[in-house]
Write a structure and sequence with these properties.
The chain has about 425 residues and is an alpha/beta fold. Helix content is about 35%, strand content about 25%.
């Protein structure tokens, strides 16, 4: 028998929100307050801040290229520790709590080690515990295959697991606690005039996440969009109104206000490289084979331009994450393709709605960057995002210039009140 979905709250705490005993205690108090309010609470946790990097360093100190399977086995110990510690803290405050890890969570995954994807979630064990009045604390970031192998879920895995559990349990919302106040019109550490968005649509948030906004992972937002789940992003370290990411089918007038302008925010990503791959004239255009090889390795590319033909030789120009650059070189070498790369670039993206219907946005962007003597090496335009490649050393200036030229510091917030910046 399942618990009434309307009474279920799914909450996720990131690693920085659980970094020490005091923060674990503060998180536990939030959880107890929800439970005292009559909710059945499921909590998803990440490893405590810095733990994952420490475990990876330990693995590399043992083996230059450790087994992917054993790395997964090692990494989940960080989440398991967080789950157990938070369950202890909740229990110490008078609320029964049970931590779950591995196959206990009901999360089934498929794919390869380090890049698993959720296949299904069996909610039965969670339901039993909720019926007993327990707070359920789930170690995020991983699932178990149908052959009982642990798979970590890759970047953003804990966020994605939280949204997935909300969907499986029939909850309409998912709260994600992190170390920032919410989603801003730009990185507030870089742009002093950046504003906190009270609400933003999931469609726009997906693009902002892909473009470099680190608050939420695009996989989690995409899952929320498909399952009609609103995500509330809140700061666990201090009081904050936070940001609500409205799912496409659920968002009402409140959720659409921030999208009323074509440009909602400016995102940037410095962990990028520009790659040019080409082959000499031949009878075979191996672009499909090359892109297929990248897909097999889960390598995501962006700002893609292709020129040439099999007769004249083709050239593929794109942007890739720095941590996937070596894998791109290997895929190209296996097909006999030549490569060059530029690691000193960044992508700066305008994110919003109906970009293709407003070509003046691109013109204004290029003009404002030229006036500031910032070179644009390449760009791409889509309905919800304009991405520009600029020199990495000028990326901060580019974000500020575009944020100012798009008037993002003078928009109104969701309440209709003027925002002072």
């Amino acid at each position: 028998m399942s618990v009434d979905s309307g009474a279920i709250r799914v909450v996720k705490f990131g690693g920085t929100s659980l970094a020490d005993a005091d923060l674990v205690a503060a998180a536990a108090q939030k959880v107890v307050s929800l439970a005292d309010g009559g909710y059945s609470v499921v909590v998803v946790v990440s490893a405590q801040g810095g733990t994952t990097n420490e475990l990876l360093s330990a693995a590399r100190a043992i083996a230059r290229k450790p087994s992917a399977r054993e790395v997964d086995q090692l990494l989940i110990t960080g989440e398991a520790a967080s789950a157990a510690l938070l369950a202890m803290a909740v229990d110490a405050r008078g609320r029964a709590a049970t931590s779950l890890v591995g196959v206990q969570t009901g999360i089934r995954a498929q794919g390869r080690h380090g890049w698993g994807r959720m296949a299904e979630i069996d909610r039965r064990r969670i339901d039993v515990l909720l019926h007993k009045g327990h707070v359920v604390v789930v170690a995020g970031f991983h699932g178990v295959t149908f052959k009982e192998e642990v798979l970590t879920l890759g970047r953003g895995g804990s966020d994605t697991a939280a949204v997935g559990l909300a969907a499986a349990l029939g909850a309409s919302d998912c709260e994600i606690y992190t170390d920032v106040d919410g989603v801003f019109t730009a990185d507030p550490h870089l742009v002093p005039a950046a504003r906190l968005l009270a609400g933003v649509s999931a469609e726009v948030m997906v693009e902002m996440s892909y473009a470099g906004a680190r608050v939420l992972h695009p996989r989690a937002v995409d899952l929320a969009l498909r399952h009609c789940i609103d995500i509330h992003v809140r700061n666990s370290l201090r009081p904050s109104t936070g940001t609500t990411v409205f799912s496409g089918l659920r968002k009402g007038i409140q959720g659409m206000i921030e999208d009323s302008g074509a440009v909602v925010g400016v995102a940037h990503d410095r962990a990028k490289a520009r790659v040019i791959v080409w082959n000499r004239p031949s009878s075979l255009d191996c672009t499909p084979e090359f892109l297929g090889a990248l897909a097999e390795e889960s390598i995501e590319i962006d700002v893609v331009v292709r020129q040439g033909s099999s007769e004249s030789g083709f050239e593929l120009d794109f942007v890739v994450s720095l941590d996937q650059l070596d894998a791109v070189f290997e895929a190209a070498a296996e097909l006999g393709l030549e490569t060059t790369s530029d690691r000193n670039i960044a992508t700066v993206s305008l994110v919003g709605t109906r970009m293709l219907e407003r070509p003046g946005i691109l013109s204004r962007s290029l003009s404002s960057l030229r006036s500031s003597r910032i070179e644009v090496k390449s760009f791409s335009v889509a309905q919800n995002r304009i991405s520009l490649i600029v020199p990495e050393e000028h990326s901060g200036s580019a974000v500020n210039v575009l944020h100012r030229s798009m008037g993002l510091a003078s928009r109104r917030d969701c309440s209709g009140s003027e925002v002072n910046v």
